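Researcher: Re-running this chain for the archive, since the previous output was lost when a drive failed. Same request as before.
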Amino acid sequence: MSKKIIIKTPEQIEGIKASSILAAKTLETVAPFVKTGVTTKYLNDICNQFMRDNKAIPATLGYRGYPAETCISVNDVICHGIPGPYVLRDGDILNIDVTTILNGYYGDTSKMYTVGQVSEYAQKLIDVTKESLAIGIGQCKAGNRIGFIGNAIDKYISAFGYAVVYEFCGHGVGIKFHEEPEVGHCRTEDLGPEMVPGMTFTIEPMINAGKARAKVDKKDKWTARTIDGKLSAQFEHTICITTSSPLVLTDINNEFPIPASIFNHNI
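Model: Regenerated structure tokens:
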């Protein structure tokens, strides 16, 4: 196991859990406002106000120069979409990504939203992406290795003809915004460090309907789009490894229950 991985104490885990719950509640709060005619900046401002009203700081603002309190990625934007004047239209899909700092602890989560009536094509991508996160979480058991997560995700989504974005990954989180280990979402022979109780990290598969690669906007240096203009989807949760089932710290609605049968040491 890498010496750089921070194994959290029970007290730290409680702090990370509180921040994670607030991050999840932020996404829950903004949901009713995701509709045609509103701008992505408007959604960002709602998230920002909720975080600050609850004594948290948005981690993205100012991080390596990032200019907003959330990332909002619409349609072919894979990640790091900067909220702005874009007006949501019927059929759009979007990911809202928030990271809270509450009492010095970080909670990181994102989810997909739909605007009006979306195509079956778009909804299928969203559904498969969400399930791929569940499958990744199912590998989170003490004794498994980090690489099991990406191998399981890649195996699942490839059956649908989709592609895993390999240029971005999940990461350790909790004491810092980005910690070790890196958590890849695609197939790898390097299985990486062993999962042990007290590890906290994100799983955040970014799944493209077309090619896997991303292109970053040359002007804003942040917005990452699919290279072929096809749709992309992403879901993210913060996970804590325990001696038994993983804790999905940002899953406040129990959308990702982990049955014992899902664990697989042979991916």
